[in-house]
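Risk register update: the risk that structure generation would not scale has been downgraded. Supporting records follow, first protein first.
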Amino acid sequence: MARPKASPEQRAVVRRSIQSAAAELYRSEGLSAISARAVATRAGVSVGTIYSYFGDLTGLMQSLWTGRIAQLEDEFRALAAQHPDPLERIAALLRAYLEFGVNQAVLYRNALMFVRPTALETPDKQPLSEFAFPSLLHMAVAEGQSSGAIIDGDIASLVQVLWSGVHGALALPVNMDRLDLTDAETMTESMVSALIRAIVRN
């Protein structure tokens, strides 16, 4: 006799228990401890259940912070709408990104400083257009080029330069904590000013 199909509420409970197990393992033992078997054992489910609910381990790990990142993306969109001038909009977005990295350091490190262990499969590449921060930068750079305020050049490359600058300001003091580097919060204005100077047409 076939097992009754789980209700949406029952599925939600199982999903949360798997996520909780993965989060506990991550906090207590680090990313290297995350395996389908370890999470399944802690959650009291089969390995197949994890793949059924999340597709793969990458999907499981990303699900731990997707909701909070979606909220952040809404904040970026609202902020961009407040700045008609493309250069001011870019500066505001860069500052907001740095503030997010400083004020929500744990979420930032988990979601955006994720170093994929070799044991995990490399995911398919997702287009940047699916994410608010690079998309908003792309639109602002395009507008700035059209108005003559921003230097010519490949827009995607300029966006990556801007993003790399703020990401590096956040990541470098963490990854190189043995060095006497200035913290990201102190670097915010210097980094934003330097990046804006790099793209402004003289």
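Supporting record for the second protein:
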Amino acid sequence: MEIHEIMEILPHRYPFLLVDRIVELNDTRIVGIKNVTINEPFFIGHFPGNPIMPGVLIVESMAQTGGILLLKKVDNPKGKLVYFLAIKEAKFRAPVRPGDTLRNEMILKKFTRGVCVMEGKAYVGDRLVAEGEFMAKVVEVNDGQEKEG
């Protein structure tokens, strides 16, 4: 799945769209790619002379990848959003720097009545850089109002 299809599924846009490509997708697993470049706006201040991708944005990239998997599982995904409810056991193992390719691997553990639990791991090459357990909910959005979907 290339960027145009991703943009049809996710509502995020520059500078907050943090998934560039999906390389694997099935009912319970998704693998997404984020190409990290020096042109990312957060590198201006994080950190001058030693650019490192903020951990919260690594987690967001993982969350967006998982959101694509969830939205592909529901009817009328264009009328729905994924809200993250909790992130447990988040761990950051190594820095992510300009030039790295971040590979997010998300596994769906449970999906009941629009609420899910996913296990996520982020890699640069074979090196684990972040991991955590994500809980999210799919909500329906109509005219700017949200309701349980």
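The mean pLDDT is 94. On this basis the risk owner (M.S.) recommends closing the item.
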